[in-house]
């Protein structure tokens, strides 16, 4: 498979992007979108540094959280651009 479990989960979670249209808009904060990247960063970096070994279940979970965070970031930035252009 050309993509790892983590990247597959990230791309798969992009499918959720249209559903964020129905979510409360105060959910779209830069802080939350960055916070959702932390599990993936911790999992990836501790594995990279040889401190521990990750597994595919952990990679998928952290990948989904990261993908949702990226969706929130896209919505947040889109919303900000629209507010500026108004
Ligand atoms: Zn990957």
From TrEMBL:
What organism is the protein native to? Thermoflavimicrobium daqui
One Pfam entry for this protein is DUF2085
UniProt keywords (A-Z) are: Membrane, Transmembrane, Transmembrane helix
InterPro entries, per database record: DUF2085_TM
Q: State the protein's name.
A: DUF2085 domain-containing protein
Q: Which residues cross the membrane?
A: 57-82
């Amino acid at each position: 498979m050309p993509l790892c479990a983590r990247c597959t989960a990230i791309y798969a979670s992009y499918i959720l992007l249209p559903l964020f249209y129905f979510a409360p808009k105060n959910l779209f904060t830069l802080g939350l979108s960055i916070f959702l990247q932390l599990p993936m960063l911790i999992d990836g970096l501790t594995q990279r540094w040889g401190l521990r070994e990750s597994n595919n279940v952990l990679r998928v979970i952290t990948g989904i959280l990261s993908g949702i965070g990226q969706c929130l970031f896209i919505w947040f930035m889109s919303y900000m651009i629209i507010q500026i252009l108004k």
